[in-house]
Amino acid sequence: MSTTVKLTIAPSSHRSAILAAGKDLIDSTESWKAGKTYHKVVKTYYRPKYPEDGAQWHCRVSQHPASEATFDQIWSKLGADKALHEKEFIPDIHKVTKVKEISPTQTIWTLYYKFTPPLKARVFTVLQVVHLKETSPRSGMIISIPVDLSEDPELAALEEKAIKGRYVSVERLTELDDGSTEWRMATSSTPGGSIPAFIVESSMPSKIAEDVPHFMKWLQGLPQPIECNA
Q1: Which one of 10, 12, 144, 171 is CB 3.0 to 4.6 Å from 126, fit for a cystine?
Q2: pLDDT tens digit string along 116-164?
Q3: Element (H, E) at 61
Q4: Would you give the DSSP letter of residue 91?
Q5: β-strands 42-47, 57-64 pairing
Q6: Distances from the Cα of 95 to the Cαs of 90, 110, 146, 156, in angstroms?
Q7: CA angle, 155 as apex, 154 and 156 as ends, to 5°?
């Protein structure tokens, strides 16, 4: 899952391969080594770096009762325009640009991150592929992989001028028998620049875990649809 997609290769023709690789990866997290639990409900796991990997892999898993958020509510914000929604609850993301919509389930986004000095800004450009399985038990996957825009100057111009980082992530939502939703995410990231790898890896579990309460707080603060009684 660490391969960078080039635009000379039509990503649409690789959708099934990307989904299959993502499913294999997220399934494998069931056997990864357990790490710490954060915010009482977010469990983390990790897998050592393999020769073909750019960096170590990290995973977080949380379960959410329907009283907190339903499968449909969570999927509506992760399964469509995920990058735009992330900007609303991840403070480090300062700008998100839709580079190209390949299909309703495949979109290229570029995300511009600004950090507290002395850390310099980073830009991450990814192809996001989504898939929803509507048969029981319902599940949805969102896969993000790096994309190289260098061969298309017009699209490359949409990227902010910053240090280029790379990340791969696979997220899966699963509707459980009791109506709750499992949110499982695995990621591997290299921020670029001169940040020592051990600093990046040691901070990853807590960093990915904090996205869960940030997302839930943002989701629950959104206006609720008005129900009309007949």
Answers
A1: 144
A2: 888 899 999 999 999 999 999 999 999 999 999 999 999 999 999 999 9
A3: strand 57-64
A4: T
A5: antiparallel
A6: 11, 8, 17, 15
A7: 95
